[in-house]
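Review form for a predicted model. The reviewer records the input and the model, then writes brief findings.
Reviewer: anonymous (R2)
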Amino acid sequence: MIYLKSESEIEKMREAAQLVSRTLAEVAKNLEPGVETGRLDRIAEDYIKKYNARPAFKGYGSSSNPFPGSLCISINEEVVHGIPGKRKIQEGDIVSVDCGVELNGYFGDHAYTFIAGETDDDTMRLLKTTLESLYVGIEQAVHGNSNGDIGHAIQTYCEDRDFGVVRDLVGHGIGKSMHEDPSVPNYGRPGKGERLRTGMGLAIEPMITMGTDKVKTLSDGWTIVTADGKNAAHFEHDIIVREGKAEILSTFDYIAEITKNENLVTFYG
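Model under review:
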């Protein structure tokens, strides 16, 4: 069921999204070769709790296998849902950090893919294309369009540049729950699917690969990797559908402020 958010609800969603944005910047301060992913997770959890919010990912899922972290940290061929732990980030790794919070009953959920150190030109192009495709998709998230318009824009942009578009994983609605209707695939046909209306909250998140669009889940029940072992990138924003132009609730500006004078941590397009 889809419900449209009031302006007061949108303000609460913005506060949650901005907390995620600031949390990702805290991670950026500490993300470098040699750091354990578990340390980054603890930094994020402490920061979220400092603002009287709840890490939305921790404990998410089934009672038999709840997600154990506050962040999803996915490295190289890991597309999403990587579990933080003792693994150390290596020079040249690309690191997708996905974060969700619940603040005052509303959710924020978005992601950024970092580079630890230097990487090759093809991987840089993957990240650049994925980031750009996010904004190409957001341009279509306006009243009267459909989620097929969003997906088609992302798919076309990435496939025209010879990258794979994951189909088994999609974006989603967001608001009082972390995952709401409608789904937001990163592929589709123009004009098809759910009609977009002013006040819808969406989390748009291209998951793009260097090779195949096929993925598989590892034995931990969470980590999703590319089927061919090639790198993947993932960027995500929370938005509100509006007339004429979508409103982006989250921001990468805090990350840019942290990393603009460093070459260890991130590519920012």
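Findings: The helical segments are 7-30, 37-50, 121-139, 147-159, 253-259.
Further findings: The CA atoms of residues 99 and 250 lie 12 Å apart.
Recommendation: see findings above.
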